[in-house]
């Protein structure tokens, strides 16, 4: 008869995620919340990359529109200058509206 060596080290139990999270799938509310969060994340990610993969930019499209509407009488540099001037005036109008809105909020005591 031969002697069988005894293990001196205990075999540890591995961490089993099903033990902790497996019961969660039985709850329909938790399952619906997880599916909703996953759907929102996937939709946001796909939209983010699709917008960045679109060819051209809005500024370039506006410059091309200005050149075409003038039947080619405006050069690219002139159209770009007009586009930048319009963007600058738009920014100043947006800032003015924000200041007016902030001022009216102060008048009403909201801030």
Describe this structure in words.
The chain is mainly α and 111 residues long. The chain has one domain. Helices cover 68% and strands 0% of the residues. The protein contains four helices and no strands. It has helices spanning 17-21, 28-53, 58-69, 76-108. Helix 3 (58-69) packs across helix 4 (76-108). It is elongated and about 105 Å long.
**Alpha-carbon distance between the two ends:** 89 Å
Question: Residue share in helices?
Answer: 55-70%
The whole-angstrom Rg is 32 Å
Any idea how many domains?
Answer: 1
| Total beta strands | 0
Gross geometry: elongated
Question: Order of helices and strands, N to C?
Answer: HHHH
Sheet with most strands: none
| Helical stretch tally | 4
| Percent of sequence in beta strands | under 5%
Uncertain spans: none
- Which class do the helix and strand fractions yield? mainly alpha
Q: Report the mean per-residue pLDDT as an integer.
A: 78
Short description:
The chain is mainly α.
For the structure shown, list the relevant keywords.
4 helices, 111 residues, mainly alpha, elongated
């Amino acid at each position: 008869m031969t002697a069988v060596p005894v293990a001196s080290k205990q075999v540890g139990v591995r961490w089993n995620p099903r033990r902790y999270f497996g019961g969660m799938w039985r709850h329909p509310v938790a399952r619906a919340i997880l599916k909703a969060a996953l759907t929102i994340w996937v939709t946001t990610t796909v939209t983010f990359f699709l917008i960045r993969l679109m060819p051209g930019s809005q500024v370039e499209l506006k410059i091309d529109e200005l050149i075409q509407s003038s039947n080619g009488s405006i050069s690219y540099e002139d159209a770009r200058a007009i586009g930048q001037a319009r963007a600058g005036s738009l920014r100043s109008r947006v800032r003015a509206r924000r200041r007016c809105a902030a001022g009216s909020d102060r008048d009403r005591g909201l801030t």
